[in-house]
Amino acid sequence: MRRSLKILASACLGLAAALPEPSYSTIDQDYKNGDVISRDVCIIGGGSAGTYTATRLRQLGQSVVVVEKESLMGGMTNTFTVPGSGLKIDYGVVIFHNISIVHNYFDHFKIPLIGADFTPHGPVFNADFRTGQVINGPPPDPTVTFAALAAYVAQLEKYPFLNTGYNLPDPVPADLLLPFKDFVNKYNLAPMVPFSQLGGGYADIIEQPTLYTMKILGPSLARSILAGFLTTAAHNNGALYEAATAELKGASSLLLSSTVLFVKRNFDGKGNAAIVVKTPDGIKLIKARKIVVAFPPRLSNFHGWDLDSSERDVFGTFTNEGYWTGLLSDTGLPTGATVNNIGADTLFNLPVFPGVINFIPTADPGLFNPQYTSPHELDDDFVKKDIIAALGRLQIPGVTTTPKKASWKVFTSHTPFFQHVTADQIENGFYTRAEGLQGHRDTWYTGATWQAHDSSMIWNFTETILPKIVEG
Fold first, then answer.
1. DSSP states of 142-207 as a string?
2. For the whole model, what pTM was predicted?
3. Could you report the per-residue pLDDT of 167-208, keeping only the tens digit for each?
4. How far is CA 260 from CA 64, 89, 103, 147, 290, in A?
5. 70/289 Cα distance (integer angstroms)
6. Left, alpha or beta for 76 (phi > 0: left; psi -120 to 50: alpha)?
7. 3-class DSSP state for residue 105?
8. Cβ pair 338, 360 in contact under 8 A
């Protein structure tokens, strides 16, 4: 019986794989009045990359429409409003680089910025979250740490082509293909390894090709470590996306809670694209000369698209990690305490993942921000339970955590996180093929996959493709 069920299941899967993509009308008359939208550019995805792209293209005289599947713009920028007090807490994107692109963007929406303050306002504990044991030891010598960071930056400066995008030379420099742990040992950089974790959420960056660390910890981030970061004066990074939403809605250029059903490029033989979208107000047809993809480019996100073999090759090659964040109350942790996960017996004392990265205090004394990462995708409920279990294992002297009382105020998955490929695939020209898709079939790509999980650097990268989009 089980064998018969397996055969039947296999047959059904094969049938599903063979079914053609759905087709929708591209004729105006088949849609209601007002349900046909014509724009220069259709931007799909309203996170950090998509919102910035839309804002800048409008400044450059392009008409746009943004399609966002969520009810809010902002992507990984998450801001929680504490009931009663109205206090804002950022628990997704928290800081920005102190560079002109960031200043110009926030100035456009009249949102003031201030220097980010990382001064601990309570005790800091380092513990191995596998056992809950606190790991005591002397703090790192800042002179040695920053000397190692300077040595790393000297290596980084050999590869200026990494500043924006993945425009790699052929052959790819051998050092960029080394696992980062081997690169660290080769150049005696061990004291700077904690800085490689500043990108937040990367589960096994030490095992990945050095290329990826250099994309995360690039020149701008290294300078910001020394000079300081920025955040919004109101500690409400979501205000940026609230302002962008108002601006785009005012120009009838935003479709929230909307999903793409069908994409046909050059549907009319004149280079125009037809995008059929399901919105809360019904099905709409968008006609655009150009498309910007501002969502994670993996095959499952392209259902209904007219992908060709080169696009399928690239999007089907990526693998990804998982990342989760949220706000937790009634933890039993001391007010203002920070608890970092470190490995008692691991290489460079890095934590073991899947697992909690840390518990970070917030401006609300009763709320903590746990962050969790995994080298592969996990079920959200499993992650929630694993965070609570890690809280319960903590053995901090004088502290009794209360995992049974702990309550989630908000919990968010940022999966898929860190789309990447292997060193062999990089060496064999993967990123040459990926970058070759920019402008292919009048479609451009931006977002973390094309730069790093860093809003400031995503915006910086986007600036390099904007002129091509406008001219295309």
1. HHHHHHHHHHHHHHHTT-GGGSSS----SSPPHHHHSBHHHHHHHTT-GGGGGGGGTT---SSTTT
2. 0.94
3. 999 999 999 999 999 999 999 999 999 888 776 789 989 999
4. 16, 32, 33, 50, 15
5. 24
6. alpha
7. helix
8. yes
